[in-house]
């Protein structure tokens, strides 16, 4: 007979005995979000990691997010339930190619989206997330050319919002690039009373149909405050869990991707499960470790982001 474990109770007990904090992103499965101490977007999670006093940070998100927590907390143990929880944006920006790109523009101010490796962050002047990208770019001296990597769609959105020209790395997210414009327009026709809310990692032809564009947290706050009762949500479907909790009477329709599925889930984020979370806490592995020099080099641009976001 296999072992039957009450993962939720086990995780809560381990949290107490280890003095751990569980940080989770909105794209995690609902049970993982519910057992977490804090659920947020990339910026809020980085800020929560920066201020925690727990001995252990258990990060329920993807690798770059846990890496960010480790860079901000070099002395604390950072656990990630599955080290294979990567990110297509980060994978599409290999450090050697990024260095060659940067070398072609020696005078440029380099802004990297937080969805990038520690090695890319270490070569950047400042980091941004989807919630502070406009604010960060607005603070760059007007006489400096700007390189923006790795998400071209967020980059284009920021160019539009700030009026700044930027050289864009041609990266994209496998989840957000496959929303179907045709199906979205069909949903709008079917639900004329719905507002469309979208993440800026979506392509321009999708974003142009949005009533509101923002980070996961900004989208969540928007639907809660909006007087409208119905929303077509163009981002990873995990966010619907918090929408239903915060504003249960409203209707949320996940926008469909172009692959035949009814809604869109990030295959990397969904690698984390309650079982893996429990086991990683119990065994204190997998642990996120980084070379000290890389950790040190990536800290300055991350700290600048936190300062410029305050
Ligand atoms: P947010 O920072 O908006 O939560 O986005 C993270 C992400 O990976 C979106 O795909
Ligand atoms: Fe990366 Fe896209 Fe997944 Fe976000 S949704 S973690 S950008 S692959």
TrEMBL record:
EC class (word): transferase
Ligand binding (iminosuccinate): 25, 42, 113-115, 130, 199-201, 216
Pathway in which this enzyme or protein is active: Cofactor biosynthesis; NAD(+) biosynthesis; quinolinate from iminoaspartate: step 1/1
InterPro entries with a match to the protein in the record: NadA, NadA_sf, Quinolinate_synth_type2
The protein's Enzyme Commission number: 2.5.1.72
Entry coiled-coil feature ranges: none
Keywords (A to Z) from UniProt: 4Fe-4S, Cytoplasm, Iron, Iron-sulfur, Metal-binding, Pyridine nucleotide biosynthesis, Transferase
Cellular component GO terms, alphabetical: cytosol
Protein's UniProt keywords contain Transferase: yes
Protein family membership: Belongs to the quinolinate synthase family. Type 2 subfamily.
Role, per record: Catalyzes the condensation of iminoaspartate with dihydroxyacetone phosphate to form quinolinate.
Name of the protein: Quinolinate synthase
Protein's organism: Corallococcus exercitus
Name of the encoding gene: nadA
